Amino acid sequence: MKHKVKLTVIDKKLFPELKEKFCAVPDSGPCPCYNVGDEFIFERDGDKDHFWHMGLDTLVKTQADPDTVAGGPKLPHCSEAWDAFSRYIYTGLQGGSIMKGWMKDENVMITCCSDGTRPVIFKIERIDYE
To answer: According to the model, what pLDDT value does residue 13 have?
Structure first.
């Protein structure tokens, strides 16, 4: 059995009152790195080892210019987002349970980046295949 991991951006939030109160650039808007609906596939098989390159070139679906999306062909994933989901991706790529006992499906996890003023919410899925 082999494993890959699918990462999907399922939502983006913006808290303008927090940005105005705390941020140096309070009108910077929502996260520019990701778009709702962006999908990424991580693999570790043969010559493919997306994990060790911070997901560079894992983008498989977007409505935006791929060159401007984190995880696309030119940009690795944002470090704040990577910190939030990399451990689950690594676990999934090894065939492990991502979140047994917490999520309805132990091979799925919902997480978000640590930007408290404009978080991006991700769905992580381990995909098993032969």
So the answer is: 97
Domains: count for the chain: 1
Residue 85 confidence (pLDDT): 95
As a whole number of angstroms, the distance between CA 41 and CA 9 comes to 12
- In sequence order, which residues have a C-beta less than 8 Å from that of residue 47 and are 6 or more positions away? none
Give the pLDDT confidence score for residue 78 in this predicted structure: 94
Rounded distance, CA 16 to CA 120, Å? 15
Per the structure, the complete domain to which residue 24 belongs is given by 2-129
Taking the model in full, what pTM does it have? 0.94
Say which residues have a Cβ less than 8 Å from residue 26's Cβ, sequence separation at least 6: 16, 19, 20
Within 13 Å and on the Cβ side, how many CA atoms surround 11?
7
Residue found by looking up tokens 């990701």 in the block = 34
- CA-nearest of 130, 119, 123 to 12 is 119
Under DSSP, the state recorded for 98 is S
Residue 50: the pLDDT is 85
Integer Rg of the chain from CA: 15
Residues lower than pLDDT 50 in the chain:
none
